[in-house]
Amino acid sequence: MSFPPPKDPMSMFANGKLKPGKYKVQNLTGQTYLEILEDSRELCCRPGAVLSPQDALWEFQVSGSGYKIKKVDPGKPDQYCNALGGLFFGFGSAVSATAFPAAWRVEIVNDIQYQGFGYVRIYWGSTNKALDLNWWGSSKDGTTVRLWEHIACDPWRIWKLIPIQDGGDFSAGLDIKKGEAPPEYSAKR
């Protein structure tokens, strides 16, 4: 299954930040979509041809300065992207779906060949470890996703977010003191 790109690929961003909402997450190199391996709960990528419209859907929810990434799977318990070895496991840490959310940082890719297309890198919290489709972005069904130290221009660590549903206001979930607004909203309020 192929999903239509947005008319303006940068429309899912406001002031350089991803708008909260529901997205399909596609790897640039493998052209496959982020999913969960049912037997192990590890994150993997699957070709669009084997997915139904409700598969491979993820909700990016604002959490502090980053996002929680939640699998949209009605009727099932909440599942969030999380790193299984964290910082202490070294390179190539497993990424899994768990009941507990982790903080993720989503950054627009500014490499010259990708500018303006809405591509992103997804980092674990404040680290330099990015979601990586194993085997240099293999398109094989079920290829696992890992956290690897980001090295410039690794296209298998670049993702396209395909907007499915708007998630509303950025302020939902942000830690804001009463009477204050995030800088990007100051002029609007």
Please tag this protein with its features:
Trefoil (Acidic Fibroblast Growth Factor, subunit A); 189 residues; globular; single chain
Query: Total number of helical segments?
Result: 1
The neighbouring-strand order within the major sheet is 7-6-3-14-11-10
CATH architecture: Trefoil
Percentage of β-strand residues: 35-45%
Q: Could you say what the CATH topology is called?
A: Trefoil (Acidic Fibroblast Growth Factor, subunit A)
Low-pLDDT stretches are 170-189
Q: Order of helices and strands, N to C? A: EEEEEEEEEEEEHEE
User: What is the terminal-to-terminal distance?
Assistant: 41 Å
Q: How many separate domains make up the residues?
A: 1
CATH class: Mainly Beta
| Category by helix and strand content | mainly beta
Compute the average pLDDT: 77
Total number of beta strands: 14
The profile of the biggest β sheet is:
6 strands, antiparallel
Determine the fraction of residues in helical runs and give it as a percent range: under 10%
Gyration radius from CA atoms, angstroms: 16 Å
Note the overall shape. globular
